Amino acid sequence: xxxxxxxxxxxxxxxxxxxxxxxxxxxxxxxxxSSYSQVAVEQTDADGVATGSFIHAAIxxxxxxxxxxxxxxxxxxxxxxxxxxLAKHD
Length: 90
Fold this sequence. Notes:
Elements: E1 3-8, E2 14-19, E3 22-32, E4 36-44, E5 50-60, H1 61-67, E6 74-78
Antiparallel strand pairs: 1-2, 3-4, 3-6, 4-5
């Protein structure tokens, strides 16, 4: 079953996104560089308990600041299927 998440955009526009490749987690660190911010997210299970697995994202600094991302925020990491590459080990 695909997850549907509601997103609120500028104004009072709400939008749903349907993507299978999603992981929820809590921001553990945000480091701003000159162009990009490095955001570390610890994945959580369905009950919100930390799993010990991390996802790291690099996003533009201005977007990171506009989103007001800070340690402790709950976020959803979304992976477009076209950007996911698998390699099979023999």
